[in-house]
Design brief:
globular; alpha/beta; two-stranded antiparallel sheet; single chain; TIM Barrel; 12 strands
Length: 373
Amino acid sequence: MKKEKFLVNHTEYDPRHVMVIAELGTSHGADRVKAGELIEAAYEAGADCIKFQIVYAREILHPNTGEVLLPGGKIRLYDRFRELEVDPSFFADMKERVEKKGLLFLCTPFGVQSAGELMQLKPKCVKIASPELNYTTLLREVASFALPTLLSTGVSKLGDIEEALSIMEEAPGGPPPICLLHCVTSYPAPETEYNLRVLKSLSSVFGVPVGVSDHSLDPCLVPVLATAMGAAVVEKHFCLSRDDPGLDDPIALPPASFGEMTRALREAEKAGAAQTLETMYAKHGKELVERILGDGVKNLAPSEKANYERTNRSVHALVDIAEGEIIRKETIASLRTEKILRPGLPPKWEEKIIGRKTKNFIPAGEGIRLEDI
């Protein structure tokens, strides 16, 4: 699939122009004034696209998933996500503001409800986050929209990507244009674990454009080298200050650093891959650059291995399910496991276990395993 086909909605598209996404996520804190400041700052820093997240805690995890330590103390992770919920009118406002700047509005849904609300806004494209790459129901829903779709591939194996793409290909109108975003699901992610040669591997294997969603702290190392490896898209978290209270603000780029990144990317585009690599070798040393480029084999990065099957979705009990009870649709959901719960079966099993009788008592929140059925 050609890069032009995926980015056709970018009104000033140049085949040599990497699309730069400023991931605001939930850093606005539901404050429209701050959100406006973030949009303006990202625009001034050179972003092509500004991205948000539509969060409903119940679509993402179970209340029993555990706690997270924040500057004000420990809080249930579920409650922290609840704090990030906003009225749908907020995103309609954000889309209007972003598009008035001539930028592309992008948003990530985390379940069927948020995906439906996003579609009401008539977006030009959509993004699936790494933990939802195996969320069968959401993938099918998004594929039905027939919109250009970015699939983030952090905390995934090659087979997981293949399965996600096969689901997208089953869409009634055929597969939508896809771009895979290579990612390391670790916060922050070490630059030396990015294995950026995998971009060419993924593009070759799956025949789609590729990019990078970068959680590392350096503003330029991964983005510039990703551009040299053929990235069509570069995404970085954006904040006004790393001292702000947003969940991702500690690993996000403030305006000055984001601007430094976009300027470096534009210089790399003009210089071309070979010259960019030579420049990076001279500036950072060949040993470091080669460690960042890696061997091009798609494997879990060391820093994200422990998150596999915990950050990804699996089937969990929404309520206590007694031994011998029939599993019903309303008593289970495909959620992120996260902190203290056990993972369950992959989401593709959800429909298969409905109507089956349990062998064991399954406490609310716990993953449902094959031995429980």
